[in-house]
Amino acid sequence: MKVLVITTPVATHFAPLAPLAWALRGAGHEVLVAGQPDVIGAARAAGLSGHSVGEAFHAGELMSLGLPEGLRPIEVGGRPTGPAFAGAVRPWTMHTRYTVTAYLEIARAWKPDLVLSDRLEYGALMVGGLLGIPVVQHRWGVDPVGEVAHAVGARALGGVCERLGLPDGLPLPSLVLDPCPPGFQDPSVTPGTPIRYVPSNGSGTVPGWAFDRPEGHRVCVSLGQLTLAMNGLPLLRRIVDAFDGLPDTEAVVTVGAPYREQLGPVPASVRLVDPVPLDAVLGSCTAVVHHGGSGTQLTATAFGLPQLVLPGHLDTFVVGDRITACGAGLSLDEAAQQNDAEAVHKALRTLLTDPQYAAGAAALRDGMATQPTPAETVPVLVDLAAAAR
């Protein structure tokens, strides 16, 4: 079987698909990643062959559009409402108009049996519909954005579909895979087919400190590059300050050199390190502080770690809601809370001393372990492709 992977040009949108692509290759199937340069590097780092389409997209610039200098999204708009999720999808409908023809040309030349994509790549649905092959979408985690995506795309891309030869409009996916552990997905989202989350945070060098377990707590702080790029350095400063005076606790803060230089002096209990694949270092940690990114949240869940979520935009708030609802951690979802180092300090102390959060995190981890692995999901995809022939 030949599987064509097409994703929106965001490396973190591609990352959840990598373990399934590995499983397909391990089972003897051919896999080709087609995408803009933004994802081709991630594909190559994952050991997958890729075909580059067009120029780099730089989705981070899209996220920062209209953001006032010095303010984070949460400080401008607070918690997003339903229309914000639909609004976040609309730029991808415009993006599809410029990329779908190139993806279609690749697909017609390579002749895949199945297309694997993320939830926002409308071109994958069109390619599948025109070639008469299944399209499998893979959620990256909690999915309020992906849930509204098809309805928005069907309205915006009806003319494009008709021009290409799809008079019935935007096709539906044949299957939607969901990596959330049981009970974690947003209850308002249509249930998908479970697949176990396997951390795919890229590759790197494992630092020596990761092999040493401290006598007390070690907390990993990871805000992701996008959060820092969207005026998030003051937030990181307050998180770092919150560790001052926290007993028996070491903080490991992943932050690139440019931001590290701007951060300034840190408490003695804080270690600043270069970004590193989280699955390589979380084994020595007892908790995680993060921005609500699904990859970070699911990786921490795979290690059974309680989490403090500081959401900033779109579905990161829902991630925080679900962590709280499942008893696996806390979420500070108001700008005033996040801007108060004492409030962050208090939340950290509670997270580390109240055993209910460790128990909730362990329950999520155990639930995750019951889901079918990517390798066990491969036969499902094979059957889908065979039925379409």
Summarize the structure.
This protein is α/β, with parallel strands linked by helices. Helices cover about 45% and strands about 15% of the residues.
List keywords for this structure.
globular; alpha/beta; Rossmann fold; six-stranded parallel sheet; 17 helices; 2 domains; 13 strands; 389 residues; seven-stranded parallel sheet
Could you walk me through the main structural features you see in this protein, from its secondary elements to its overall organization?
The relative contact order is 0.14. This protein has 389 residues and is an alpha/beta fold. Helix content is 47%, strand content 14%. It has two domains: 214 residues, Rossmann fold (3-Layer(aba) Sandwich), CATH 3.40.50; 161 residues, Glycogen Phosphorylase B (Rossmann fold, 3-Layer(aba) Sandwich). It is built from 17 helices and 13 strands. Helix 2 packs across helix 17. The longest helix has 29 residues.
